[in-house]
């Protein structure tokens, strides 16, 4: 095997594995770091660097691995793949079986026509039944007078009866709601409390303040534990917080302008759906979570 030759303008090596391994070592990268970036097993990276086919998949996949490896270390991907193709055997041509195209069913076929006629006939019958049940009116009942006396004779006794017609719909009696005096209504409104104590999903108490002009909510949520997280929201954000015992302390959409104080046992697992809109303090100290944010989503652990 020839030794690699170098000059001021280019570097050429004999095998793809030698090229990639040499450039990796120059950049101070380990085989495990390359495997993590390409999402491959370390054994596959070692086989590539040793130009070995042991444990390797088909040549098509190996070419893809070589291109990804070459991009990481800055090698010429086309040249690396060309060296691999010159040393690897050519794949046998793929044999495709002869497959006849499926016969398309036409609307002019007799079975299709018969099935269509049956469905149309069934729909017409259903329409007639529905029409008769909703719109056919008994003519004898319409022409019958409102007061009709019928005389019958049973055992020589004449029986006369009247037919009374009533409305087919029932109407409830109209009632006028009782109006309270203005003074009494004012007293009841004055006695209403200004704040309501609500119960949250996880058993914690939440204090809500409701004004008369509109709804102005100021919520402060607290748990139990030696550690404390303080949240201040400038924008709406989905927030999830779990403590060391995997107890859910907060799992909801937090609106902008709200502040939350949450107690629990560290370490905490924290997730922000819109991290730029949330400011967090841990045990009184401001915590910068921007380095954990990706596409406005931050997921981190407190303490780090």
What does this protein structure show overall?
There is one protein chain. This protein is of the alpha+beta class. Among the domains are: 13-87, 434 Repressor (Amino-terminal Domain) (Orthogonal Bundle), CATH 1.10.260; 195-302, no CATH class. The chain contains eight helices and 15 strands. The protein has helices at residues 16-26, 31-38, 42-49, 59-73, 77-87, 110-135, 139-143, 182-190; strands at residues 5-6, 11-12, 149-154, 157-162, 195-199, 205-209, 227-233, 237-242, 248-254, 259-264, 268-272, 278-282, 285-287, 293-294, 297-302. A five-stranded antiparallel sheet has the order 9-8-11-15-14, with no helix packed on it. The protein has a four-stranded antiparallel sheet with strand order 10-7-12-13, with no helix packed on it. A two-stranded antiparallel ribbon has the order 1-2. A hairpin with a 5-residue loop joins strand 5 (195-199) and strand 6 (205-209). Helix 1 (16-26) runs parallel beside helix 4 (59-73), helix 2 crosses helix 3 (42-49) and helix 4 packs antiparallel against helix 5 (77-87). The radius of gyration is 42 Å and the shape is flat. The model is unreliable at 1-11 and 182-215 (pLDDT under 50).
- Overall pLDDT level: 75
Strand content: 15-25%
Task: Count up the helices.
Answer: 8
- Gross morphology is flat
Radius of gyration: 42 Å
Structural class based on helices, strands and sheet pairing: alpha+beta
The profile of the biggest β sheet is: 5 strands, antiparallel
The total strand number stands at: 15
Strand order of the largest sheet: 9-8-11-15-14
The helix/strand series, from N terminus to C terminus, equals EEHHHHHHHEEHEEEEEEEEEEE
Low-confidence stretches: 1-11, 182-215
């Amino acid at each position: 095997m020839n030794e690699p030759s170098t000059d001021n303008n280019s570097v050429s090596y004999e095998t793809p594995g030698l090229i990639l391994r040499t450039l990796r070592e120059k950049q101070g990268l380990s085989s495990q770091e390359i495997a993590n970036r390409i999402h491959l097993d370390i054994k596959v990276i070692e086989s590539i660097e040793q130009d070995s086919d042991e444990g390797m998949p088909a040549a098509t996949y190996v070419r893809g691995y070589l291109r990804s490896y070459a991009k990481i270390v800055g090698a010429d991907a086309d040249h690396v793949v060309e060296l691999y193709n010159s040393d690897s055997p050519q794949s046998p041509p793929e044999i495709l079986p002869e497959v006849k195209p499926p016969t398309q069913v036409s609307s002019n076929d007799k079975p299709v026509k018969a099935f269509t006629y049956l469905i149309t006939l069934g729909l017409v019958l259903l329409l007639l039944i529905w029409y008769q049940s909703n719109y056919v009116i008994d003519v004898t009942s319409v022409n019958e007078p409102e007061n009709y006396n019928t005389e019958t004779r049973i055992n020589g006794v004449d029986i006369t009866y009247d037919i009374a017609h009533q409305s087919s719909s029932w109407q409830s009696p109209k009632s006028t709601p009782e109006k309270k005096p203005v003074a009494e209504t004012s007293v009841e409104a004055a006695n209403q409390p200004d704040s309501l104590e609500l119960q949250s999903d996880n058993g914690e108490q939440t204090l809500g303040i409701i004004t008369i002009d509109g709804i102005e909510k100021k919520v402060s949520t607290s748990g139990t534990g030696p550690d404390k997280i303080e949240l201040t929201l400038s924008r709406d954000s989905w927030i999830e917080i779990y403590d060391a015992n995997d107890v859910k302390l907060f799992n909801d959409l937090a609106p902008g302008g709200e502040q939350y104080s949450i107690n629990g046992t560290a370490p905490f697992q924290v997730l922000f759906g819109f991290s730029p809109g949330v400011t967090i303090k841990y045990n009184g100290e401001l915590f910068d979570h921007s380095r954990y944010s990706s596409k406005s989503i931050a997921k981190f652990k407190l303490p780090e």
